[in-house]
Amino acid sequence: MRALIFDRPGEIRVADLPSPKPGPGEAVVDVRAASVCASDLRVYRGEKYALPGVVPGHEFAGQVSALGEGVDDLALGDCVAVYPIIACGGCGFCRRGLRNRCTSRRTLGYDANGGLAERVLLPATLVAQGHAVKLADMPSDAAWGRAALTEPTACVLNSLESCRFRAGASVAVLGAGPMGLLHVALARAMGAGPIVVAEPVASRRAMAAELGATAVCSGEPDELRAVVDDATGGDGCDIVIVSVGLDGLTETALQVAAKQSSVNLFAGFPPESSATIDVNDLHYREVSLTGTQNATPDQFRRTAALLPALSDVDRIVSHRFPLSQADQSYTSRSDPAVLKTAVYPDG
Q: What is the pLDDT of residue 297?
């Protein structure tokens, strides 16, 4: 089978690998669509670790094509979106349903082969934990493409819920890359009040406005504060999302946060990044500063059920590639006009 292989930072290639065959408790999924995450790009740049030689891809959906002995919850032909975390099931986080925080977790696309391939083997532990989430029949490539966005959209749901999202809440999103735009689309669908987006790239600002942002700006701090003041009557935003890992954005986010607001560092930052925070400002304004990574299995399942009604998320994928050109799904992202990229089977 064809697959994209991560050899080392800066080196990826499409090559042939043996097709996986399921052992007891395992399943094989024929991948119908996969998308490329900013975390994948950080691995490619050497900012985050993945196993050399691994097949990347933790955002994917497909059809079950082979089952190992003892698998009863899946059937051949089932359409599934795959929650990519292989959790231990026994640590304190797992027992609380927070498998994304498992102390010994492994993840498809980083520690085991992922979905940027024709087929992917789902380990027995992942299958037994119900992490292959069944979907309705997929009528088109577009439906498969949206299903592949279950994982990143679930991460956004975790982000908003961690910020105590409520209908009518004012939201600021710093950075309108693919994940920032997903925040805009989901917050709007969930009934947000004014949504302010800060983004230096004009085409991304335009997309944010199309997806439901009520005000956009280039992100220069004084301009952002003025736009937020105008949108909120000077109160600041109830929720501020830092969706790009740049030095200085944490401080900027806190400057536009309202009293009793939540600021979420959603993006991963380069190693050794830091911020200077006025702790008394957090204390007296009762601002919560948090970070989120991944999503829980429950959030993933709820997102899978919600996505068929969220057609706007399709627009966040700007470029699509056949598997034989999967390396371009990485290299093309250096162009700011490119948003999220997706990979489909050849033909």
A: 97
